[in-house]
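Support request from a user on the community tier.

User writes: "When I paste my C-alpha cells into the form, the page sometimes reloads and wipes my input. The last time it worked, I copied everything first. Here is what I submitted, just in case something in the input itself triggers the reload:"
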C-alpha cells in the first residue's frame, strides 16, 4: 500500500480508488490534479457530483436516468412511439443513441435474469414493460440485450409473456460476439446490428 504525507490526500485517494477501473496510482494522479486547480473549480466539480447524486431521477415510464419525472426521450413526440427497445441498463441506451440509427423508445430492465446471481423476473422492470405493452401503442419490441446465456433467457421470458399481445418481437443481429457487451461495441457494428435486426423466431430456429 502506498504511503502518503497527508491523511487528507490518503482519504481522497481511497475515495477515488473505490470507482470502477481506478487503481491507487490513477487515483493519486486525479487527486494531485485537483490539488493544482483553483478552489472554485474543485468546488464546482464536487457540487456537480453531489447534485447529480441527490437530484437525479429515474423516468417513471422507461426507467432511464432523467432530470424530470419523465425523460427527454419519452416526451419527444418526434420519436417512433410504436417501437420499444429493451436494454439491460442505462449505459446501453447511451451506446445505442450514439449510433444515431434508432428513433424509437426504450425500456431499461435494470439487469437480466440470472438464477446463479439470485436475480429473477420480479426483480427486473418487466411488470412495467407489460403495462406499457397493454396500452396498445407498441407494435414492435426490439431485444437489445447482451448476447449471453442470461440475456437469451431474459429475451425468451419476455417473449413468452408477450406472445398474445399482437406485437412483433425482433432482436438485433448477432454482429456482436456471443458474450460481448453492447456498451463496448463500436458504433458501426452496433448500428449494423440494429439495421439488420430479425424476428426473434429466427434465432430460435438456428
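"...and here is what came back when it finally went through:"
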Amino acid at each position: 500500500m502506498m504511503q502518503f504525507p497527508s491523511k487528507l490526500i490518503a482519504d481522497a485517494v481511497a475515495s477515488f480508488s473505490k470507482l470502477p477501473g481506478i487503481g491507487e496510482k490513477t487515483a493519486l494522479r486525479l487527486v494531485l490534479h485537483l490539488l493544482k486547480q483553483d478552489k472554485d473549480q474543485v468546488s464546482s466539480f464536487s457540487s456537480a457530483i453531489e447534485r447529480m447524486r441527490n437530484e437525479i431521477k429515474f423516468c417513471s415510464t422507461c426507467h432511464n436516468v432523467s432530470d424530470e419525472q419523465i425523460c427527454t426521450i419519452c416526451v419527444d413526440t418526434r420519436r417512433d412511439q410504436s417501437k420499444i427497445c429493451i436494454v439491460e441498463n442505462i449505459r446501453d441506451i447511451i451506446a445505442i443513441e450514439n449510433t444515431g440509427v434508432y428513433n424509437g423508445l426504450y425500456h431499461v430492465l435494470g439487469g437480466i435474469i440470472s438464477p446463479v446471481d439470485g436475480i429473477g423476473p420480479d426483480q427486473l422492470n418487466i411488470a412495467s414493460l407489460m403495462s406499457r405493452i397493454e396500452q396498445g401503442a407498441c407494435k414492435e419490441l426490439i431485444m437489445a440485450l447482451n448476447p449471453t446465456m442470461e440475456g437469451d433467457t431474459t429475451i425468451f421470458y419476455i417473449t413468452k409473456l408477450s406472445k398474445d399481445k399482437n406485437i412483433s418481437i425482433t432482436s438485433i443481429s448477432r454482429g456482436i460476439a456471443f458474450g460481448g457487451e453492447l456498451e463496448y461495441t463500436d458504433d458501426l457494428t452496433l448500428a449494423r446490428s440494429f439495421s439488420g435486426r430479425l424476428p426473434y423466431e429466427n434465432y430460435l430456429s438456428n
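Agent notes: The reload is a front-end session timeout and is unrelated to the input. The domain at 70-204 is CATH 3.40.1360.10 (Dna Topoisomerase Vi A Subunit; Chain: A, domain 2). Residues 17 and 23 are 5 Å apart (CA to CA). Escalated to web team.
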